[in-house]
Amino acid sequence: MNRYTLTRHLWRSSGLVVLWAGMLVLSLLVTGIVSLFKDITISGWSAWVYISPWYMLGMGIYVTAVHLPMYIEHGVTRRRCMPQALLFGLLLVTVGAALITLGFGIERALYAVVDWPQTLGESDDGLFTAADQYGRIFLGFWLGFAIFLAVGAAIGAAFYRKAWGGLGGVLVIVLGLGLISPAGLAGAASFPTSRVVEAVAGQPSIALVVVSCVVAAVAATGLTWGLVRDLPIRSSGN
């Protein structure tokens, strides 16, 4: 296997750019249709982007429950698989956050043509509070995507290996509900547990949000590694 073959294969299978383009076109189309009946006062893209973290969760599951076992079964060592899978994850998260940010920029340019305000609604939660805070938008979604991808990878690995008597996947899902809470605080997701934290402690500082996101992503990644480092290969009959 050539160097980075697995990374390239995973990237091609992700379909990220095509999905982003489809979501952006659909967002603009729906906004245009709505404008025929009422004034546009908020960013349509800001509502659509909250689908994207769940895509990252699904990709994480897909990598550890489908791709890694397939590669290991065909003789690729875990030592070779994991660095390439990690590189793919970093690439997916970075490009994904960049595309979300680009979507806000494209929408802003189009809104300017028709003189529509591009606001984020009444919420001022998260690392960004305006649709043109591109650096903060990128950071917020990068952190959120990293958490969702890592949690998805842990869930996929736990279900695949039937960890802890088959209850591992369920237990990891429960744990994942807590781990993804910081993604909501970063503004990259709309999630109930994040609102619970805000209700109890208020909106935390930017530094605390960043640190909590990093800790959550590292914890989920560590859990994933613990589950895949000796990942068993099941035959199709099992």
From TrEMBL:
This is Uncharacterized protein. Keywords: Membrane, Transmembrane, Transmembrane helix. The chain crosses the membrane at residues 16-37, 49-72, 84-106, 137-160, 167-186, 206-228.
